[in-house]
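Hey,

Quick one before I head out. I ran the complex with pyridoxal-5'-phosphate overnight. Inputs first:
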Amino acid sequence: MGRGEGVNLMPYSPALLKAQYPILSEDIAPGVPLHYLDNGATGQMPRAVLDAVVTHETRNRANVKRSVHTLAERATNAYDAAREDVAAYLNVSARDLVFTAGCTMAINLVAHSYGSLLREGDAIAVSTLEHHANMVPWQMLAARRGLRLVRLPATAEGRLDMDALPGLLDGVRLVAITHASNVTGAITPVAEVAAQARAAGAVTLVDGAQMAPHGPVDVPALGCDFYVISGHKLGAPNGIGALWGRRELLAAMPPFLGGGEMIRSVRFESSTYARPPQRFEAGTPPIGPAVGLGAACRFHAGIDHAAANRHLAALTGRLIEGLRQRCGDRLRLIGPGDLADRLPLVSFTIKGAHPHDICQILDRRGVALRGGHHCAQVLHEAYGVAGSTRASMAAFNDAGDIDACLAGIEDALRILLP
Ligand SMILES: Cc1ncc(COP(=O)(O)O)c(C=O)c1O
């Protein structure tokens, strides 16, 4: 299944979609509706995911792959089916898909396991745009194994600097890049990066945390070697995510964590290990959350994301324009000012107003934004600011959410910059 192929999409309507999220029909305070614009931090959970998790925990709860009773069989089937659903969302084989605790865990797994195969003096290239989850594990690996860390710079607009790339890949064995920045919203031309990396003898790991909630991802078309996603960004429970790895790479990688489920046989002195993906899933897995992630992927696969993304691009334009009109010269966008190749998220600063104060004032209107460095200190440093305010949209957001946000910005300007 590529992007949207072979599935029956529901007609796209933000209103119909909103109705599927219980929290979005509740007032956040008496008489104050919720305008949730913090989807980049965590996606809200639709009824379909809640139902799948409740059904699993009330009817199918047992450990997987261990007992032969009916519940255990149901739990095992549900867990296996969830892996198939997540794999279908990424257009990959379930055999190559490892459940992890999230993106952070998935990247740490690769940094430890694939990283142990790198040699002293090898280089790892990491972009300025990365979330700490895709930067700190590589720093730690570099320190552990004597590797060189190469910075792939960003342009002034907050996109990966593609002109600089060819000159930086000498000696690089692994390139770690985000599919889309959680701060600037810029979408990386991953296929181009992966092709250049491969030509230079490097593998590419792609952080799909922000991209995956905006539609199924055709991972093979990207030509990357590892792709990681985060469940909670897709509206699944916390504590679940996934790593896809190229089969021959996973097969050559040693385990990351040891314990039950990941072994073939255990003797007192040593053990042999199961094939991937089990090799990388030590202990009882997060079964209920995995079922939730499977349901979240099915839910998202049923959304007409092409239509949603057109609608969200228009909302992004409305927000940027509205900010420009209200803030004038005080506004600084931390990211591109245009709508091409970007996610529907907008990070900005308003001279003289602290992001946390802005967020607090908007919260009174039920508008949920995020203020701070968004776990991307290096990127903010490149812009010369400590933090920013971010509005990040999902397919259910509508013009009312954007207008509530802009009305809140007017409040903030009045209160903070009288
Ligand atoms: C781009 C990006 N990468 C990685 C992460 C971390 O993901 P997780 O919370 O699943 O560990 C986040 C979450 O904030 C993110 O936005």
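The domain at 50-301 is CATH 3.40.640.10 (Aspartate Aminotransferase; domain 2).

Talk tomorrow,
K.
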